[in-house]
Amino acid sequence: MSHVARMDLGGVSVDVICDAVADHPRPLADAFPGAPAAGWEAVREQFPQTVGADGRWRFGTHVLLVRTDAACVLVDAGVGPAGSAAAGWLQVAGTLDEDLGALGLTPEDVDLVVLTHLHQDHVGWLVAPGTGRPRFARARHVVSGAEWASVQGDARPAHVRDTLGPVEAAGQLDVDGSLVAGMRLLPLPGHTPGHAGVLVEGDQRRLLFGGDAFNHPLQLADPGVPSLADRDRAQAIATRRELLARAESLTVLGAHLPGAFWPGHG
Ligand SMILES: [Zn+2]
Q: Which of 79, 139, 243, 246 is spaced 20 to 30 A from 237 at the CA atom?
């Protein structure tokens, strides 16, 4: 069980769930190429929770469960169970199924799944193992059109075929579909071509789940430090700068930020 936090935005509740904590195969300095201004030793001292075995990048993979009067929405689908692509890559299985159970929910309770992008650590729970069927059997699944377009034809990775394939075959994929009242996608390109954040607005507060736009808190101080996994580094840096400029009015969370929260917010 790794329930991180619950926020009441006013008529909308948001549960932050950590699906898995893992050490990246690469050292922190490789995962974020380009030395930060303060130097790596300072980063390691300031953010010890991001340093794993042998100096590797230690990170959690967070998802959101958003509940409004009208819908139960899962934002991102995590590392997934043992046997998923990301569980193999990171050598750790996710716990989202148990975490949803602890909240009194079954997969059938989820009405909508929203995906910030299609990297393997964000789609891991989409398929029920051994069935080839969508785990969230009643849910509409939304991904941005630009992201979906980027994985067509020869560009489709095996993990996308294995996870989104059954969702599409079941008629549950809604590319560029609208979300629900109070929620919408916000394009945050660079990490992937169609990477998008998810804005959630309640009566009193609003927050932005920024996906992988920021992957390490050092990028808040120095948005020019790229992530190894950023497909278009210049675009990702521009997106981070733009997001920092408007962050004052938002609570911002990241899929892999420690505790999911933007430091100083939440
Ligand atoms: Zn990720």
A: 79
